[in-house]
Model the fold of this input.
Amino acid sequence: MTTQPRYMANAFNGDESELEPDLQTLSRRRERVLAPSYRLFYRRPVAPVRAEGVWLFDAEGRRYLDAYNNVPAVGHSNPHVHRLVSKQLATINTHTRYLTASVIDYSERLLDLFPAPLTKVVYTCTGSEAVDLALRIARYETGQLGVICTSNAYHGTTAAAAEISPSLGPNNSIGPNVVLVEAPDLCREDPAEAGERFARRVRDAIAELAARGLGLAAMIVDSVMSSDGVQSRPGGLLAPAATVVRDAGGLWIADEVQSGFGRLGHGWWGFTQHYLEPDLVVLGKPMGNGIPIAAVVGTEQALDRFGRDIRYFNTFAGNPVSIAAATAVLDVIERDDLIDNARQTGEHLLAGLRRIAEHHPSMAHVRGSGLFIAAEFVTDPDSLQPDPAQASDIVNRLRERGVLISVSGPAENVLKIRPPLPFDPTHADHLLAAMDVVLA
Done:
């Protein structure tokens, strides 16, 4: 089999020598029918046949602790999500051109979770569509075209979203209206200075746009900066940059696809950790626990003129079945107090990883918030030279021990731990025990 170029961290390289015969057959069938843009994880891909809570199970019954998938936010195969979706699917499933109570009920409930200026919502089916729409709104509102994003960002796969997603690889073109800025590097920068340094880079990016004859429409930032290596703390890290953007007449777009719905353990949204109020917020995958639904939430000022002047309709966006799934997600987060669970479990996991790091100097920095944790690996603690080979090896050895995580960061040397929200301290201890063994 031909080895595929590695444009995704921790991708399967096509070597089937370690795969069981049935997985070899499945892999070859997959390659024959799926385009090569698809990627599998791990040296030995996992083939789950069912899932429950924070666990995946393969055909032989082996279980894997899922410490990676944020899409099933309230857990795989959640019974409450299943009940509400099944009931709605058996009743009616249409679109938002009819007067449907459930989408209004959900919208009121969702918007109550945002600060007061964010009072309107537009639904899409995917986060990529929501990012695309947010860019259109920002450009129409400001009359400008320029966009700033971080240098290893991922925001989606539509043409417009891919142009602001440098993490898609070296052959993915960045748009001519886009300027990239280096994200904060909390392993190598003084956290007390990182926010102001980032703001200076944003100011330089605005000047670069001006040199190209472009004004600033917006800056879009994933509030946890996941693809940039998980750079979420200290509190207020992004606030100085947001001020620079606003002073230049641009809108701040908070990409909450990964950080939203309580994942960071302090409130519902990641942008609140940065002490800022965005003009537009993008929601995505976890919103429906895997059922396609996403949204743009924004201020009246940002959304009204676009909504009056330009037709926007998405046939399946906000359909009653997807709204049922989204309603169930809010129900479970509130009923099971999953935001506080994210806080407590995240603190427990951070403390455990820091204890492990004391005995392994190559684990140079442990950081994160709630159930979004990173551990950065380097070749030596003095030079802080990234060590992607070690990070990849750890991920694959954990997979062999039944624990699933991935890697992140521009150098792919950062372990990314991002489990479903029901992940509790006993699950964290399971992960920590496996990490201890692997590093030993």
